[in-house]
Amino acid sequence: MELVEESPYRFRIDRRDPMRVPGVVFASEALLPDVGADRSLEQVAAVATLPGIVDASFAMPDVHLGYGFPIGGVAATDVAAGGVVSPGGVGFDISCGVRLLAADLDLAGLRPRLEAVMDGLGGATPRGAGRGAVWHVTGRSDLDGVLREGSRYAVQRGFGVGRDLERCEDHGALDDADPGAVSPRAVERGATQVGSLGSGNHFLEVQSVAEVYDHDVATTFGLWPGQVCVMIHCGSRGLGHQICTDYVRRMEKAMRRYDIQVPDRQLACAPVESPEGHDYLGAMAAAANYARANRQLLTHVARVVFRRVTGGNLDLVYDVSHNQAKIETHGVDGERRTLCVHRKGATRALPPGHPDLPADLCDVGQPVLIPGSMGTASYVLAGVPGAPAFASTCHGAGRVQSRKQAVRAERGQDPHRQLAARDVAVRGASRRGLAEEMPAAYKDISAVVEATEGAGLCRKVARLMPIGVVKG
DNA sequence: ATGTAC
């Protein structure tokens, strides 16, 4: 595995058979994975062998090992040229993403009520593996609404306001969801988890705006220094997981029929224009809508708590997912092409002027929400014109230790105390769960953001610091 | 990420 430095923050993995395109890694020297100890760049090269892939197999500065595709990876295939879709290119947590809410309150105003807010959020947010949900859906019709219409359905049922949808990617729902392509088992798992945080790196965090880098853009996004915010990071729970499992299995079998060979079984895929490809994209869109409704319901809960304790409101800044495949139009070799863009641990970052942006954000570009590791900063970024990698950027800090390694490194320590020392109030989370998510298990989020900006993928708007966190 | 297992 040889890396050629093309420009600062951009490295190339030269194409060699059976790669169809080169690999491109956006990173600083310091953030580059150690090719001796880390297989994530081999995964970047393996993705480059997929039928129909165009331009390059991309890795973001937060790249790390994933199932088949690396996390922090972007790959686009040309639909008309037999391009494939791969469940491993989306990940198990379909449409996992981030939502940022801005309070009409500053940090000083929150301080006296912080414990009450945290107790309220901790008590009202269903979290952890399995157990509990905001919305106990009964029968298939409510769940169908969630799968077909995502946040739009949640708002229609009273869990939010119309303006929320203007600030959601795709206005809160992907259009081509096919609940019929979702297995009964996935539906069964999903029915009891609508409006729940989950576990692992998912969280609901109370934050404050610690620094603003671009005052005008921050103002347009509705953000100002010292302001209190709530960030929600969660996904499609057991439903998305089951859909990924179902379709990996189905595509493993289908590949022989399409005469597709991949260097790793975990890269199972099928042509976008095939029954398997169509069904996966329909099921994936249903899971994506489930994830968006999930974040909408947790928003509702947070608003109820804030209203009760502070008397104030929470306005949606933006909601964007970082695990998804989307059919998009991009210029490739001077031609407009219909592509299936896989973003796995990578965030869409639309440039200023893009038609899919809400009218009031059109001049400044899409808000990009980057959660840091627990107890560290999170960032608000903005899309920039002419960015590479199909308008995509990083999604977070990126793991450097496995969960097991992180738990071992925390042995004999008290993670609760360490977070208290950082002035972060914690609600929920097992000792082990916290140990797995300590900052030492992740790259430095600020270094990741510097590299994405240096690579021309996006630009900084604001840095947020955590005050309190609700964990699974 | 995940009813941390089919």
TrEMBL record:
A Gene Ontology BP annotation from the UniProt entry: RNA processing
EC number in record: 6.5.1.-
Residues the record lists as binding Mn(2+) 2: 233, 322
Top-rank lineage group of the source organism: Bacteria
Enzyme class: ligase
Entry keywords, A to Z: GTP-binding, Ligase, Manganese, Metal-binding, Nucleotide-binding, RNA repair
Keyword Chloroplast in annotation: no
SUPFAM superfamilies on file: Hypothetical protein PH1602 (SSF103365)
Amino acids binding Mn(2+) 1: 93, 202
Pfam families recorded: RtcB
Free-text cofactor note: Binds 2 manganese ions per subunit.
Claim: Ligase is one of the keywords in the record: yes
UniProt record similarity statement: Belongs to the RtcB family.
Listed name of the protein: tRNA-splicing ligase RtcB
Organism: Salinispora arenicola
Gene name in the database record: rtcB
